[in-house]
Amino acid sequence: MLPYLLIPLLPLSGFLIVGLFWPYFRGKGHWITVPLVALSCFLSIRAFMDTLNGPPLHYVVYNWIHSGHFTASISIMIDHLTAAMLVMVTVVSTLVHLYTVGYMKDDSGYDRFFSYISLFTFSMIMLLISDNLLELFFSWEGVGFCSYILIVHWYERRPSWLAANKAFIMNRIGDFGFLLGIFLTYTVFGTLDYSGIFQQIPAHLNDQILPFSAFHSQTSASVITVIALLLFVGAVGKSAQIPLHPWLPDAMEGPTPISALIHAATMVTAGIFMIARLSPIYNASHTALLVVGWTGAVTAFVAATIALTQRDIKKIVAYSTMSQLGYMVMACGVGAYGAGIFHLLTHGFFKALLFLAAGSVIHSLGGEQDIFRMGGLAKYMKLTFVTMLLGSLALSGIPPFAGYYSKDLILTEAFKDGSLGHVFWAIGVTTAILTAFYTFRLIFMVFTGKENFSHDGHHGHAPHESPLVMTIPLMILAVGAVFAGWAGEHFDIIGYLSQSMTVPHFSGTPAISEDSLKLISVIAGVVGIATAFLLYGRPSGVPLALSRTFRPLFELSQNKWYFDEIYDAVFTRPMIFLSFILWREVDKGVIDMVVNGVASSCQSIGSSLRRVQTGQLQNYALVMALGLFGMVSIFLFMK
Amino acid sequence: MVPLSWYVALSSTLFLIGLVGVLIRRNIVIVLLCIEIMLNAVNINFVAFSKYQHVIDGQIFVFFVITVAAAEVAVGLGIIIALFRLRETINIDEINILKL
Lengths: 639, 100
What we know:
Largest sheet of chain A: 2 strands, antiparallel
Distance between the termini of chain A: 89 Å
Largest interface: A-B, 10 and 12 residues
Oligomer: heterodimer
Mean pLDDT of chain A: 89
CATH architecture of chain B: Orthogonal Bundle
Helix content of chain B: over 70%
Largest sheet of chain B: none
Shape of chain A: globular
Shape of chain B: elongated
Radius of gyration of chain A: 30 Å
Distance between the termini of chain B: 55 Å
Radius of gyration of chain B: 17 Å
Number of helices of chain B: 3
CATH class of chain B: Mainly Alpha
């Protein structure tokens, strides 16, 4: 058991050693953290191997809280779902650690950065191996905090801390719902342990509560549905689903390694992991599944449309992440948790690859992120080009790359889920076309065509390939992007995962055979790539003409469906206005007046009473004598 | 035998003389002397009541009072000399440094 305890503890000790003694490292922090994370990765793979043939591991490390009927323990539970996720998280984390050595070279916060990504890895592992909701929630907050602290790594830059605040506040909204869900879970089930909750679900299937009783409304709802939806609010925040998504693209202000690690492969998938982990709760509520499915489908589509017109290389990849997360959530919504997790795993590899490759491009151009100021980079950085191309093919769902298997599985599963499933499937296929299009728009703009970058931008010499320490992680991830999907299908990862997840049973057979469905999604990918080639593969005025013709649509997409503006108008500005009023009228007018009034009245009373103290000894003596005289007289007369 | 009321009257008179002296005199040495008068007025009371009630405690207490008074005068005169060196005055009105 002890070796598996080390999986979270190694990154934690890396964080503590480098974090506490950072002044002594001076740019050598990776000598501690990288081996520790790599060791943790090795142990995770061993744990994964163990679960292939053995029962899930469950081990209580210690009882954390014991109060009345409430108990919460810190436990390690490595079942099939966790083990698969652990391997992906630790592998990506190790590669990102390695990549960071090259990317963050000469950064003033080099050792700080390493200690924080180790802390993040620890929190993420704890999130995966938790066996109760409280432990899950604490690591959930832990990864959120690490995300914040890493986005704001370059804290002198205004966009960084604005983005970090935005991410933190948006996540806080989601976490509030999540916390309410945990409270309700405890109230209903009396326990926070997953197994305890799952056992009691059948007994509470028909329980009703009045969620709006505070507003004197008699609307009743199934308690399971309310729990599922409240917990889902947390997932919406963490996994950047509409409407709590705008923090994710902004989070790209952070250094690229954390965009790859946190905002593509691991933390943002925590929401999907949570839904899959709590699948018995979601299976018990048809309404909740419907909400989950629609949220995912809408997110997938909206994010894909936004990505079509963005110019920032990292924002494009970020919106594509959001879109793929939408796919996974949609998969959970149709009950295909296995497919969702499978896509999560493959996506972790190829999206981390795309981010790291994008980082490599940015690195070689000295910080340039606008794809319209790149072009023709293929001949300067062949390794980056090839790996990014592989990642893009995987993302577009072209066989035999990873994304084809997992995305296709989601679409097939969606199609099986009745007429609503057909709608989800249609949205999914449309999104797949858009995905292939914007991904290859990026490839063509960055790596082919005319060189639009300025040569003097980067010390006056031509762009160069990144150092080996950055390209090796790219190559390893590219292997994952190529083979992960095939391996998953070949070794029946769905069957493996379903040992720890209950999957609802689908009745009926689809009207179209699975082969034709697969063919349709491949065609969708090819159509997207072909369109991108026609528009951006060679110099043409078509994109500009199109953007003129469909100006409203173009602007809708370019302005991200005006989400930021709407939130600004509906929430931020009224809040600032209200705060301003409260500050000027209530704070300064009432509270300050009371406080200052007490102080100034004390002062004026004191200054008039001050005259009593003359400093003349005989005055005091006189008053004393008079007082004594008075007291004696009263005493005598009273008698 | 002299009645007790006479002693009490003498003591009260001395005490009042002392009190008025403390209150109205400006010379700080006189003020100190007046305090001594007040203490001795008290001593007379002690001795008188001790004698009339046949309890020795009062007379013993007088010794304490005399001792303390002697010590107090020594300290008081010391303070007066120090003050005089500092301010060159023994007028109590001019010594009002207790006031801020």
